[in-house]
User: Fold this.
Amino acid sequence: MLDFASSLTIGLPLIMKPSILLLAFMGSLIGLVVGALPGLTSAMAVSVMIPLTYTLSPEQAFALLLPAYAAGTFGGSIGAILLNIPGTGAAIMTAFDGHPMRLRGEAGRAIGLAATSSLIGGLFSAFFLAAAAPLAARWAIQLGSHEYFSIAIFGLAIIAYISPSIIKGLTAGAFGLLLATVGNDPAGAFPRYTFDQPDLVGGLTFVPVMIGLFGLAEVFWALEHQIAARKPVRQKITGTVTSAWEVLRNYPVLIRSSIIGLIIGVMPASGPTIGSVVSYGMEKRIGKNRTQMGDGAPEGIIAAEAANNSGTGGALVPMMALGIPGDAVTAILIGALLIHGLQPGPALFLQQPELVSSIFLLFILGNILFVAIGLGGLKYLLRVLETPPRYLIPIILAFCVVGAYASSNSVFDIAVLIIFGIVGYIMRKASIPVAPLVLGFILGPLIEDNLRRALILDDGNPLGFLTRPLSATLIVAIVILLISPALSKLVLGRTVKLEE
Amino acid sequence: MNKTHENGSSFVFSGVVSLAIAGIAGNEARNFPLQDLQEGLGAAFFPYLITGCIIVLSLAQIVYGFSLGFKAKWPFEQSPDLNRLGLLFVSFVGFTVAFAHFGFLVPAGIFLVLAMRLLQAPWINAGIVGISATLIIYGIFVVGFAIPMP
Assistant:
């Protein structure tokens, strides 16, 4: 099994190749551009690029996808600063201080603060990933069906909890689990929900579902909200590099935010967005310059960006060690592993340690590349941001169709793409979060399989989940998590009445 | 953030649709075998469990929606550009059908030019960008990554 030193070394021969470096550059560039464009997300970038990886080796595939993940998370901050339209959810908090700074004529300083904070947060989490993931995988070997089931359900509960509506989040997660049952039953090979379609016997193909939900749906959503109609950025961008010193001078904020982002990112299904929100909130509460937060304070940008990029590495820990995604993008990355016949989890660490090490190294490389490309190519990135969506949107749509078809050279998958594009669009209209559905879809087979086994082991007694410490703890945590909003409303309501 | 999530109508709509889908799924699951514990519980076990959960959650959404104040009106914001969006969607579906039958190059070229034009790009720009993009996408997938097209 890997240790920290070998996790950063044995994968080097796999990645020190021109093709890998070229793919990493491409992935960073695409992730940066897509993340920066309003209305488009890093999830879309990664899902649309997955079809490009079919003919690539696993390390080549991750050379394309991992840098895109890291770059997309940072890319969102550029739209947040320049346009006050965060390109990704993780950049929402960056807009609070980034855009006021831009309005003062300090856009370059804001972007430099964001880039440096993202780099340091990302690298911090990358090294943590290399250290912690092998330990987590070693620990995961001891886990049984009860624990895997509880951890997966805990992940679903968290992602529902952080949704705008818990109940809609839970419903979406449950639908994801239901979608995962399409195809032959894993235990008895009985066809479920196939409606006599041979293409459904193997289940719904992951890639067209993802591209439909994240690609197609988001494009139509962006069009409908006329995110197209925005003013071009007309400002000279200077001071991006010198602001790096400013980040280092604010090292308490940097360290605190990186740790917060990492801890939250590690929790299954939390992801970078929550990390940046919590970090920003913490800085606003206890930071030295808290009175200036929201008005162009550099600490606001540092807190948000360090946390969101350190969250990306954190999210990779449960993904690699347990096969449970840390956020929607890592759910898609799990799909990428499965496409290449690889199952994330302890077995991967044992059977393919060089590949695992190469994944850690590629993540480090991705974090370095996006800053280099983002700052070095900022002038060109701005031109891309100014490209009218009337040209970009149809191109993305064409990409979606080709990507969906390429997943298994099947025209049926294009129909799946359209259906899930419509589903994703309606979900957005109805404020039903998409991420729980994706997570449920990815985790469905794991949940079903482990639930069955656990019940068989316990002779059908569901209370068996409460006899194992970890499983019991997680189930209690889930219950507390889901009822806490209602409880706090009740308590607050009574407090107000008492005060009256 | 979409304001509909605070609107009772949104929850009632979402609950009713979820209930309908769960009902259909549960009904379909009646055709799957259910077995005892030692035989692995059967193909119907998990679908029944999940559709049951969805039914409970759907009813909860409906009740919650009514408690927030249900108004019998379309719960979603109307898009001001619905016609154009609809036309774009129809042309997109047309492209996918043509792609399946005639390959990528011609259908994509036509779709990209038409879609850009629908989004109010000038004809010349739509032509140049659309055809260039077609060739670039083809180059990336077929030549660059050796992924075949129909």
Notes: The mean pLDDT of chain B is 86. The longest helix of chain B spans residues 45-68. Chain B has five helices and no strands. Residues 3-68 of chain B form one domain.
